[in-house]
Amino acid sequence: MKSVLTGSMMAAGALFAALSISPSAFGQSSDAIPRTAEGKPDFSGYWNLPYMPDLAFKKEAEVPYTPAGAAAFKNHDAKDDPTGLCLPPGMPRIMHSPFPMEIFQTKNQVAMLFEYERIWRLIDLSGRGHNTDSGLTFMGDSIGHWEGDTLVIETTDINSRNWLDTNGHQMSDKISVTERMRRTAEGIEFEEIINDPVMFTKPWSHKNVLTTLKPSPGLPMLLEYFCTENNVDVGHLVSTKPSSK
Predict the structure, then answer these.
(1) Sign (positive/negative) of CA torsion 199, 203, 208, 210?
(2) Domain spans of the chain, in order of start
(3) What pTM was computed for the model?
(4) E strands within 184-225?
């Protein structure tokens, strides 16, 4: 994969620091946050997505695996990482990837634009149900609603052609993802709840904070990045599949 210098990569230390959520980031006054003309919290702007290469944070014993989920993780091969082959990271992995994101927001829709592969994501707020006509896709179908000042996003119809993270946690096409986003003066509190009855015995949740992206001198906020351009990673991928002996 081509080495590309992005605003988020230049702030890698800040991304990892964001994984440790400070108590001061919570409990902010609702009057201190930006709001839309309709009075809803305004998520518009450029954001760093905290990189989470291992959703278990090296605590595998705490992952609520089903037998199938445990076997899938044990037998995965790192060289088969779909993103190493330039497949889209999909949902929910795109939300943990170390590239910046821009959000546009209207009354009936939230649009997330990702630097990673120039992928976009639309969350419908109109009140419609899930659109299942397109079948299973990498990004799935996302609809949202407000619970007070919290934006709740439900995503279904996600295919199983990617992994949950770089460390190789697997997913099935029965997965659904619930995200809860709350605007604060410092950023966005973000909770992700993964529900995959094939791989996990109960919902598996993760929390982090999205921080404001500050542009680097001479660089735009989002750069053009495509994995397929000068992808040199494939020849260096090394198998980690356990021996069958």
Answers:
(1) positive
(2) 9-234
(3) 0.80
(4) 187-195, 204-212
